[in-house]
Amino acid sequence: MELFEVPLYDDDFIKMIGRYAINLFVVTILVRVVYYKRSRSKDYLFTFYMLSTVVFFICFTMKKLELELGMAMGLFAIFGVLRYRTDTMPIREMSYLFTVIGLGVINSLANLKVSWLELITANAVLTALPAWLESLPLLRQESQEEVLYEKMELVHPDRYDELLADLEQRTGLSIARIEIGKIDLVRDCVTITIFYHPHQQSVQDVNGVNVSRRGRRL
Predict the structure, then answer these.
(1) Which end of the chain is more exposed for a tag (fewer CB within 10 A), N or C?
(2) So where are the chain's domains?
(3) Where exactly are the transmembrane stretches of this chain (predicted)?
């Protein structure tokens, strides 16, 4: 059956659903298990899922079209004109973004020349490699917050442990290290940068603490 000279169904529909299910499964492992477990941030989860889905269906649809050179050049020109005015995305999140885009392209454009073993291997590598890199202590994600601290008597090398314990008790964070910044003797306070690993904090700690990056007085 056809509607407006377009078939209502063809055999590629089952192929599309099957490939998308594979792509969604792999992206879920990468985003939900690997990325979110370490970052505890939900800011980019929507972007990762939607962009991967959009890229998958665009590539799958375009594969069935025989585009002329002029039309292809026109599409590239349109994308070249577009400008996205958004907040700067961190490098780590940008890496995950390119990974989910790559997964969408691979899973949608793989043809009969690509075996199932090759396709599974590509998906496994793009999922396992970020998980392995995230587990390395050297590459462990580290976040930072800046606070204004008023207990000047604790800002001394001999009382570092007391200062660290006081900051952990007042912020609710498990702090990896701190750096002493600008000391204001007029207002009797000091700027301290707190470094912590998000994946080591409980959900209540990360979401409950309200520390401004511009500095919050403790």
Answers:
(1) N
(2) 2-139, 143-217
(3) 20-37, 44-63, 69-86
